[in-house]
Amino acid sequence: MISSLNIFLYFFAYCASVHGQVVPAGSPSSRVIVHMDLDCFYAQVEMISNPELKGKPLGVQQKYLVVTCNYEARELGVKKLMNVRDAKEKCPQLVLVNGEDLTRYREMSYKVTELLEEFSPLVERLGFDENFVDLTEMVEKRLQQLHSDEISALTVSGHIYNNQSINQHDILHIRLLVGSQIAAEMREAMYNQLGLTGCAGVASNKLLAKLVSGVFKPNQQTVLLPESTQDLIHSLNHLKEMPGIGYKTTKRLEGLGISSVHDLQTFSSKILEKELGISVAQRIQKLSFGEDNSPVTPSGPPQSFSEEDSFKKCSSEVEAKSKIEELLASLLNRVCQDGRKPHTIRLIIRRHSSEKHCSRESRQCPIPSHIIQKLGTGNYDVMTPMVDILMKLFRNMVNVKMPFHLTLLSVCFCNLKALNTAKKGTIDYYLTPSLSTTSRSGKRSFKMKDTHMEDLSKDKETNWDFLPTGRIESTRTGESPLDTLSFFKEEDSDEFPLSSLPEE
After folding, report:
1. 297-334 pLDDT, tens per residue?
2. Is 130 a catalytic residue?
3. How many helices and strands (H and E) does the chain possess?
4. Where does 69-102 have alpha helices with state H?
5. Which helix (H) or strand (E) holds 313?
6. CA distance 333 to 13
7. Strand pairing partners for 200?
8. Which residue among the candidates 46, 72, 124, 130 is catalytic per the annotation?
9. Based on C-alpha coordinates, what's the Rg of the chain?
10. In the Cβ-directed half-sphere of 34, how many Cα atoms lie within 13 Å?
11. CB under 8 Å to 430, separation ≥6 — which residues?
């Protein structure tokens, strides 16, 4: 005979009484979302490839920057995005490895995603070193399999934010406890199978899971119980630390006198809607209260490939053409491996600026059909016409008759289409890993005026400018390029980043 306690728990697996309200199991507050963030990812991959590097202060170098470093180096004063010369002065024993070829990092990143998919099919990539996992269904199944005495004996795996006490009679608490145990299993599997460590945040939505995952680092995890949501939100020192509120929106909010989360929570909704538009105003005000109903969306195969290179100075057309040819050659190889055909090509530049917040400009156009047919066949006769197209886009942005100073060039193949209508399976697209960005403009000519001033997030850990409609990849300027649909839809047309700097 089923005990009354079992009947009670079974009922509350589908609805729970919280603050006097009945909360169905499918409601946002009952979800269990994990944000998985790998520790110093590039450095870990290098230490796995060369075990002799373990225990030594290690930095991964791209151009003249240390884009990431291990914790031994951090303890000696080395910071990410530090100039190589400054890093060596701070830590003379620092070992530097070249990290400009992202192939091994990309391959390891997709192995992590594949592993997480063994726990739940709902895995959303947020760059090389971050993933969201929706464990709601898995948690419900485990609860149904547990006996009443096992449920009452549940303990948290890892930390609880604010050291909050667990209420064993609150089904929302119970769900998050089970989620913490699954998160620990995922982290253990990552270490045992791939040799990687990482942090995890367990909460009821993506925003909160991301915010809480970095509270205890490295190689630890933290659970956020619902009652501590506002404490976590108010622990942010500035709005720029709120995921989903971009750089330019932050500036506009500051112009309204809004600089803190509390300011945004208490600001007039009507004035905010008038200044930013209804959808943006409502979205960011909900974020300020920790509300985020966005689903964990499986990322699927990338819709574009991009390669980019950063440098101190590019000031001649000949030099720009040479760099573009190098990037294009790499992209053509990736298209051959993937098997799909790109139908749009985009060129992105970044001009030298004294401002810390960098902007990018881009132009794109359709690829002529006769060239598309040759792409992916190993026929490098396409190099010359493709370079010609890219140089036309280049001259459309840069007046080559006048002095110019560029610090970045990026080439992107967008709008990838399969030769047939059959969809690739999960294993298929993971066998050809790459990152992506989707086409944003529908204009179809070289002379289109589609310059985007794309915001480059200075600090990925604290200031995420999410793409409104696509995926992005930064190949040579930092760790953890994004390649997934944003979980916060940034409505501002001027907030369209094409790159993200390292994970901190």
Report:
1. 997 777 788 888 888 889 999 999 999 999 999 899 88
2. yes
3. 18, 17
4. 71-75, 84-90
5. strand 305-314
6. 51
7. 36, 221
8. 130
9. 24
10. 36
11. 110, 113, 114
For strand 58-62 and strand 95-98, is the pairing parallel, antiparallel, or unpaired?
parallel
Q: Which CATH superfamily is domain 304-417 in?
A: DNA polymerase, Y-family, little finger domain (3.30.1490.100)
The third-level CATH classification (topology) of the domain covering 40-100 is: MutS, DNA mismatch repair protein, domain I (3.40.1170)
User: From residue 394, how far is each of 96, 348, 372, 428, 447 by CA, in Å?
Assistant: 34, 8, 21, 35, 11
* Axis-axis angle for helices 136-145, 171-194 (nearest 10): 110
Task: For residue 482, give the 3-state DSSP assignment.
Answer: coil
Cis peptide before 366 (omega within 30 of 0): no
Alpha helices in 195-268 (DSSP H): 206-213, 229-234, 247-255, 261-266
Domain ranges, ordered by start, for the chain: 40-100, 236-294, 304-417
Confirm whether 236-294 and 304-417 share one CATH topology. Answer: no
CB–CB of 131/124 below 8 Å?
yes
CATH topology of domain 236-294: DNA polymerase; domain 1 (1.10.150)
**Dihedral of the alpha carbons of 489, 443, 304, 405, in degrees to the nearest 10:** -90
What is the tens place of the pLDDT at every residue in 414-473?
888 887 644 444 444 444 433 333 333 333 333 333 333 333 333 333 333 332 233 333
